[in-house]
Amino acid sequence: MTMITEYDFNLASGINSWKRVGDTHPVNLYYGKDDKGRNAIEFKGNFIVNHKIHSSVVIDIVHYKNTDGTKSIEFSLLDNKLLHPFCDFLNSLVDATSQSSLSNQDAYHAICEVYFFMQKMFRTSSGFLTEAEIKGLIGELLFLSEHLFKKMSVSKAISSWSGAEKTRKDFAFDKEWFEVKTIDFGKETVHISSIEQLDSPVAGSLVVFQLERMAEEYKGITLNNLVSSVLNQIPSINDKDILASKLKDYNYAFHPNYDEFVYELRATDEYMIDANFPRISRSNIPSAIAKASFDLILAEILPYKK
Known about the structure:
Layout: H1 6-11, E1 17-20, E2 28-33, E3 39-45, E4 59-65, E5 71-77, H2 83-96, H3 104-118, H4 131-151, H5 154-160, E6 171-173, E7 176-184, E8 189-192, E9 204-214, H6 223-232, H7 237-249, E10 262-273, E11 294-297
Parallel strand pairs: 7-9
Antiparallel strand pairs: 1-2, 2-3, 3-5, 4-5, 6-7, 8-11, 9-10
Helix pairs in contact: 2-3, 2-6, 3-7, 4-6
């Protein structure tokens, strides 16, 4: 499938300027400009409106009846700075309606289901992530997509991610666990914010990503683009919805502000956490200590590097 990009949307000009998604696509799905000149997506066909689907702060939704008796549902983008994730939304719609035997009613249902999970990220979040939180989320998403997606099913990988639940290891499955940390390139220490992060009777791994902050013009890693990339690797709408829910719990939503934070991945290191690894364990501290954090010197844990 050819991915539709911002360039394709920008080819449309004026108002009510539409292009059909592929000559052979099984349903009438269009993209272009609506009657107000906004970037928009339209599905046209014979279907019954049987979903409670509402506009968000980013996407305006209307249903209407056409002169030929068919109905349309139209999604219009209200903030052009979010055109890239809007393209991801369209490409997910194309993928969800690509079966040749799909009825118009089933296509409408699939389109609504895609919108429901994307709506979790096309929303107003309660404040923005700090830069430390941005880097931390980038590290966990890199580990998910670049490591776990290649090791196991996408479904199992997503289920293994604790997301915003910081009381558990970042990733745990079968008899393996991974704690992921993201630090500035060249930093000599990594911060362990709780005893539980490395404490376990079962051997695990500490994965450390080193990122270097770059200029905004640099074609590096941004949180918005990384989220889009990860979503595009997930074939199941249900799995996409689970990931979107975890990102929502993280208080992440698509926002152009995050594009100001551009990084280059400079190093990735993995360390074996076993009985000999230098760490604080619940079993070897006084019971009166409720919580503790500590910094590890990277040069001192080199013997545990995998």
